[in-house]
Amino acid sequence: MRDYRETQKSPAKHMPSIVLVGLLHLLVGYALVTGLARKVVEVIKAPIETKIIEEVKKPIEDTPPPPPPKLAAPPPPFIPPPEVNIASPVQQQPTITTVTTTKPPPGPPPKYVPAPPAPPVSQGPVVRKNVKPVGEIVRPVFPRQAIRDGIQGGNVVAHLVIRPDGTVSEVRIIRAKPPRVFDKEVIRALSQWRFAPEPVGFIGEVDIDFKLED
User: Is the dihedral angle over the CA atoms 173, 178, 179, 185 positive or is it negative?
Assistant: First the structure.
């Protein structure tokens, strides 16, 4: 406490504050004398100009309006067809006409005409029985397969189609016993036969017996 009191009593500690207050009073008095304070007041009272800065708006591009929607044409109004009255035709009653005819008198009876004779039934060519060839006669051979099968004999009847020059054009097996055993050998042998030439060809029949000899 003693130090605080001693510091308060020394005037050197408060000297800067006293000087500052004195300077403020001098400035205020100088301002009142020279009118500086009045100018400051007028400057404060002067109106303050304010400017409003408008925002720069971007120009709006001109865009064409959208096309109007297509509207379907309304259907045409229904107009009923005009009524046409068709007159039904008048049916006429059919007229029946009776015609009387008289039969002519009967004439003389028709003459009897005999029917033409029926054409003769065409018959096939006449077959010559047991024809004999001229020159060397080729005789059929007993087949080996028939021997292996144990066949002892057989019989074949064949027709020979003979040309006008005497050669054989075809051999037809008419009957064979046993069947299909001697056919091939008969055709081979009889196809080589020769006959005397004639103006017209003919068909000859040959009967051949087969017998296995010991």
Answer: negative
